[in-house]
Write a structure and sequence with these properties.
The complex is a heterodimer. By secondary structure, chain A is α+β, with helices and mostly antiparallel strands. Helices cover 35% and strands 25% of the residues of chain A. Chain B is an alpha+beta fold. Classes of the chains: A alpha+beta, B alpha+beta.
């Protein structure tokens, strides 16, 4: 489990990182927290010829409110976001979901950008960003562009990022006050990638009907899945048990789970439906509470 | 019952902190990978990517040319100078023994079988070179599992065998056929335990230095059995034993896996011989999943016959051992041991039980804490609970009804073992009373009222320990002994060193040996040093450190040696004090005339008299020095036992199981150190709970291991393990001086059936019976859905197939 020889370059700023990536093309890999990349290199499954280290680039670790949205730099450590009052105030789903990401020691090192760029379909952060309709900010030789989460993830461990682009941050819409949020996960152990995970946010209008619902699942497809049909089934309704059940019943048609060593696809389907029902129920119950 | 007790027990029975810990906790331990030998080079092993194939060619030329590479060897190179890997357990007469060389010569029979090895300036270069070796394989049909191996037209692993069965052996007692014919109730089940392994956090490793001029082989090896390794290296390498030295530095866990003897130590020896350099070969985590002994893999088809009052009349069945592509060091030992212990703590007069050892294209089978007994525990504990349900009896009542009474000991189980002593019913009652005290039943009732499913499970286990009488071990097919030897030496300043052939791998052996020695001699524990892990300076132990033997056998030998040594110390002191030895006492290293405090000498004075200034001090009749050697070969084994209880919650929607609380009432005879006993129990239970719910080495139909990293092979963590409560009973072992019984395997034996019992209880309204381990969420959901579905209908929701459930 020793990696093959690899060259290493430390980028001083994003422009330099982009230049290094442009020079080395798909042989280069960006090194952020290294929590996935380094083990993959030790397994000799990832064999970059050069690592472009972006850890020392200033300003990439910001966590700030900006014009009704939350802006998180790619190098913000997961643990810092989990403990950030700014993040919790704007997107209370984040600290809840981050508690399911590995363990504290992993989150101390792991970054928000690293998790998103790695694009594991079972991971929590891609599901949160997908549920909330976040935008990923990429910088390449031609400048900066933003990509909606649902367009960003294209398959297991793959995204729309070009080899010479760096993910510099993610922008998440602020959730209105009194939004209820919930994370439901079935994992074999605490801290494992989920067999199925569901993140939910629900806001109720003054008349008790749902005027905002955001819902996504992980572990049920090659990408995190925004559950639009379930959202539609809930929107504008009073969220009774029957309505939640009807919303959950739409999940089956929205997901394409695969078999793996931990669970067959049929089990994932069953659990996804159940967890959607539980997550929506919990989010509804928690809605209406002042933050 | 004669029990030799030390005169005064200052330390025995107290919660002495482990002497080993500060150094290890400060990061100052020295594990084999921390050891560096001058001029050492590092090796790596190329492993087969296929489960079954003929090797038609190996080209190592490119690997040899890589700068930094010293040598590359294949199976042919190795076989020219080394024999086949040894097997030491032959419990089944006329068993076919599948043996291989440390590197495959013509054919590979499991994924991960070693095919070639490289030694280079460092491990990085060695691994680079592995990628340059080209092996041509001609794939052969794969025998992926037990059913595939036993199919009538199954491909054969060994062409000269009639089938894939290594051997089969039946034990009988009484008349099982008659018992089943007259039974009121017969319950039967097929139980499956998946593959798992001990997974020590320090993987295996060795450094071998072959000195061609001296003809010596100097080995650093992460092993539980240095004497056995030395004997087996001698057999394989053709080097006499006295020219081989095996040293064991700190061991980062063994769990039985490091009892076994592996090919890597032979590979490193051959590479060292060829290069003239010391060779380090560390098994990394990736290697460990395929190269360290697998275990547990068994199917157990058993039935139990009972009278309608709950009396067990008979037990019959077959234990299939799903062995790998070659036999490991202990052969079919563990599945065989399941048959020996399948009656557990119960009086079962009529037995007809069979072990059948079957080879498959999987990694070799070997030792793992508990050996065959955890699977035996599944048989008797599951069947007795199923019977209780069938008969409408209380689970505790049916157990109690079938225990041997205290006065029935020594109790012959019907097959091989005679349980030495115990009060099983009292232990059961102790556990039940603690369940009440902890309020589990109230928690269960309250949760049920909220619609949640809590269950309470029980497991009563026996742990045959103190392996074992040498001649009996030989009689049942072990090509090795079971005695233990210690040397206790007081030196010229009156301090004591204990030399033992046992290995300290986390269980606290050094601490308990120091406790026993200090008490046995009447000296402070701080005056005792324990030395283990060097065949040049430490005595021979039979077997190794395993079979829960270090405390009872090493402990007994220490007690016997210190008793004699203390007598000699007192004789020397008597000369110094001009008194009679019979009138002397020794306390905290000070020897004085009983009842007086005026005149005294210390062990320092005695040491000086025995080693340096003998004139007028050492009695003429005494031999100089202060040393006693004791060899203890037990007349019988010691059988510990316990009753474990567990509180779980089952999520009926997902099939997930959460462990809430756990207790164990336990009897391992004389308790030397309650804190260390608790540690052994807790560690073993954690391992069993992992085996019951999480850990599985899953093979697919091509014989590929699908769970070969910590991403997929799920060890339990502190997050999954419940709180533990331990309660002790002490019924001394009558055949072991000091009354000590072993405790190392208790938790692993008790914990698997325990989870099934608790899950069944949580789902008692559905009548679910767990028979397959580990209990994964999809598997349990299948059982729940099947139980919820009226017969004749398919479960609602998605169509599920057999394949899905895997």
């Amino acid at each position: 489990m020793k990696p093959p020889a690899v060259r290493y370059a430390r980028a001083g700023d994003v422009r330099e990182a982009v230049a290094l990536l442009a020079e080395h093309g798909s042989d280069a890999k960006v090194l952020a927290g290294g929590q996935s990349l380094v083990p993959l290199m030790s397994f000799r499954l990832a064999r970059p010829s050069i690592l472009v280290d972006i850890n020392r680039i200033g300003g990439l670790d910001r966590i700030e409110q900006d014009n009704g949205s939350l802006l998180i730099g790619a190098m913000a450590r997961q643990r810092d976001v989990e403990l950030s009052d700014v993040a919790a105030a704007a997107v209370p789903l984040l600290p809840q979901a981050l508690r399911y990401v590995g363990h504290v020691t992993i989150r101390n090192r792991g970054t928000v950008g690293g998790s998103l760029a790695h694009a594991d379909p079972a991971a929590e952060l891609p599901a949160v960003v997908t549920a909330l309709g976040g935008e990923l900010v990429l910088e390449g030789p031609g400048g900066t562009r933003s990509v909606a989460a649902e367009d960003f993830f294209t398959g297991t461990f793959t995204t729309v990022m070009a080899p010479d682009e760096v993910l510099v941050g993610v922008r998440l819409p602020r959730l209105p006050d009194r939004t209820g949020v919930a994370v439901e996960e079935l994992a074999r152990r605490h801290g494992d990638f989920a067999i199925v995970g569901v993140v939910a946010a629900v806001h109720l209008a003054d008349d008790g009907t749902v005027d905002l619902v955001r819902l996504a699942a992980s572990g049920v497809d090659s990408v995190p899945v925004r559950l639009h049909a379930a959202e539609a089934a809930l929107s504008g309704t009073r969220p009774t048990a029957d309505v939640l059940e009807a919303a959950a019943a739409t999940v089956d048609a929205s997901i394409h789970p695969a078999d793996d060593v931990h669970a067959p696809a049929s089990y994932r389907r069953h659990v996804a439906r159940l967890l959607v029902q539980r997550a929506l129920g919990a989010a509804v119950e928690r809605s209406g509470v002042e933050r | 019952m004669t029990i030799v007790e030390p005169d005064r027990t200052t330390y025995t029975g107290t919660r002495v902190r482990r002497t080993e810990d500060p150094r290890l906790l400060a990061g100052r331990g020295q594990y084999v990978d921390d050891v560096t030998v001058p001029k050492m080079i590092e090796a790596a092993v190329l492993r087969s990517p296929l489960a079954h194939a003929r090797i038609t060619g190996i080209d190592v030329s490119r690997a040899r040319e890589l700068p930094g590479v010293f040598d590359v060897i294949t199976g042919r190179d190795l076989a020219a100078v080394a024999g086949e890997q040894p097997v030491i357990w032959f419990p089944i007469p006329d068993q076919r023994i599948a043996r291989t060389h440390a590197l495959a010569v013509e054919r590979v029979r499991w994924v991960g079988q070693a095919v070639a090895a490289v030694v280079a300036v460092n491990r990085y270069v060695a691994e680079d070179a592995l990628e340059l070796i080209e092996v041509d394989y001609e794939p052969l049909p794969v025998v992926a599992d037990l059913d595939a191996a036993l199919a009538p037209d199954a491909p054969k692993l060994y062409d000269d065998w009639p089938d894939n069965v290594s051997g089969s052996l039946t034990y009988t007692a009484g008349d099982a056929e008659a018992a089943f014919a007259e039974a009121d109730v017969v319950v039967r089940e097929s139980f499956t335990h998946g593959r798992a392994f001990g997974c020590p956090l320090e993987p295996r490793g060795c450094i071998v230095e072959w000195d061609d001029f001296a003809g010596t082989v100097d080995v650093h090896l992460s092993t539980q059995s240095p004497n056995l390794a030395r004997d087996l290296l001698s057999e394989v390498l053709g080097v006499p034993v006295h020219k081989i030295r095996v040293r064991t530095p700190n061991l980062g866990g063994g769990f039985g896996n490091k009892f076994d003897f592996y090919g890597e130590e032979v590979i490193a020896a051959v590479l060292s011989r060829r290069t003239g350099r010391p060779v380090k070969l560390i098994e990394d985590r990736l290697d460990s999943f395929v190269a360290t002994s697998h275990s547990r893999d068994q199917r157990l088809d058993f039935e139990m016959a009972l009278r309608d009052d709950g009396t067990i009349l008979g037990l019959r069945g077959i234990s299939y051992g799903v062995l790998g592509g070659a036999l490991g060091t202990v052969g079919a030992g563990p599945p065989w041991a399941s048959v020996l212990t399948c009656m557990g703590p119960y009086k079962i007069p009529n037995l007809d039980v069979t072990v059948k050892a079957v080879v498959t294209n999987r990694s070799p089978y070997g030792s793992y804490r508990g050996w065959g007994v955890p699977k035996a525990n599944i048989v008797h504990e599951r069947l007795i609970e199923i019977a209780a349900r069938e008969l409408g009896m209380d689970r505790a009542a049916i157990r109690r009804k079938n225990f041997p009474a205290p006065e029935e000991f020594p109790f012959f189980s019907g097959v091989a073992f005679t349980y030495d002593s115990g009060d099983y019913a009292a232990c059961l009652d102790l556990a039940m009373s603690k369940v009440d005290e902890l309020g589990w039943r109230d928690r269960q009732a309250a949760a049920r009222a909220e619609g949640r499913s809590l269950g309470i499970g029980y497991s009563f286990h026996i742990e045959p320990s103190a392996y074992g009488p040498s001649r009996i071990l030989n009689l049942v097919g072990l090509a090795h002994s079971g005695f233990d030897e210690v040397t206790v030496r007081m030196d010229s300043v009156g301090k004591v060193t204990v030399y033992s052939g046992q290995i300290n791998m986390g269980q606290g052996t050094h601490t308990i040996y120091a406790q026993l020695t200090a008490d046995g001699l009447g000296i402070p524990m701080e005056d005792v040093v324990v030395v283990t892990g060097d065949t040049d300076s430490c005595p021979y132990t039979g077997y190794g450190t395993g079979g829960s033997r270090a405390a009872p056998l090493g402990g007994a030998a220490i007690l016997r040696a210190t008793e004699r040594l203390q007598a000699k110390i007192l004789r020397v002191a008597a000369e110094l004090l001009e008194a009679s030895p019979d009138d002397l006492q020794i306390e905290k290293g000070v020897i004085s005339v009983k009842g007086t405090t005026s005149r005294s000498v210390t062990t320092r004075d005695v040491g000086d008299a025995a080693y340096r200034r003998l004139l007028n001090k050492m009695p003429e009749s005494e031999v100089p020095t202060l040393e006693e050697v004791d060899v203890f070969d037990p007349p019988n084994m010691a059988t510990s036992y316990g009753c474990t209880a567990l509180l779980v919650e089952v999520d009926r929607g997902t099939g997930a199981v959460t462990l809430l609380d756990c207790l164990q009432a336990h009897d391992c005879g004389t308790v030397i150190n309650p804190m260390l006993v608790d540690g052994q129990l807790a560690g073993g239970l954690a391992q069993a709970l992992g085996g019951a719910l999480l850990e599985e080495l899953v093979y697919d139909e091509e014989g590929q291991l699908r769970t070969a990293s910590f991403m997929d092979y799920l060890l339990p963590t502190a997050m999954e393990i419940p709180p533990f409560h331990f309660f002790h009973q002490e019924t001394p072992a009558p055949d072991i001086p000091g009354g000590i019984k072993g405790v190392g395997e208790a938790g692993t034996i008790a914990g698997v059936s325990l989870v099934a019992s608790a899950v069944d209880d949580a789902l008692s309204d559905l009548g679910v019976t767990v028979t397959r381990f580990p209990i994964t969420p999809p598997r349990l959901l299948d059982l729940i859905q099947a139980a919820q579905t009226p017969i004749g209908q398919t479960p609602t929701g998605q169509a599920r197939t057999e394949e899905d459930a895997r």
